[in-house]
Please model this.
Amino acid sequence: MPNPPDNIEKRVHHIELRADDTASAAESRTVTGYAAVFGKPSEDMGFIEYIEPGAFTEAIGASDVRALFNHDPNLILARTASNTLRVFEDTIGLRYEFEVPETTFGNDLLVSLRRGDVNQSSFAFSVQEQAWETEKLPNGELKYTRRIKKVERLYDVSPVTYPAYADTTVAMRAMPAAGNETAPTDNTPPAEPTPDPLVERRARFLDILQEQ
Model:
């Protein structure tokens, strides 16, 4: 049986960024997307992982979540404790939203998001409740499936560089029209991205770098 760490785990997801080229979107600094999607398989990490609906419910209320770039605590973009970051569950998954700060690295990230150079998302968490399933394949190999039922703590959500899941999303959101102080809410996920043939290679490469 695979033995994932008992402390902080990170999951990186392939996401699709669609930067609107309208004038209102060009002025917007709002980033919104899904850091996790329920019921979708991860890449092969020695096991396949699924996150069940409701897994984040208690953790969101108990965690002071940060939005970071590449999980770097020096590059903080927003935070729930300061009311600059919104993190919540809906029927699709774990959704987050924040205004990109007017800092040097915030402005640099905004350019990369609009260009599509950064088009992936990630979250860091610890597990409280999980379940394992084992299946013997026709070739005799064992297939392990891990189901995350309850997250103990949610540490951060992060725009990142390398993918591991294939179904999360992030996008720039247009500013509301003049006189409308509330931006429109859109819970419809973007079109499913084309699978990346380098997903597993990149994810494993990132794991190697983190271990060094």
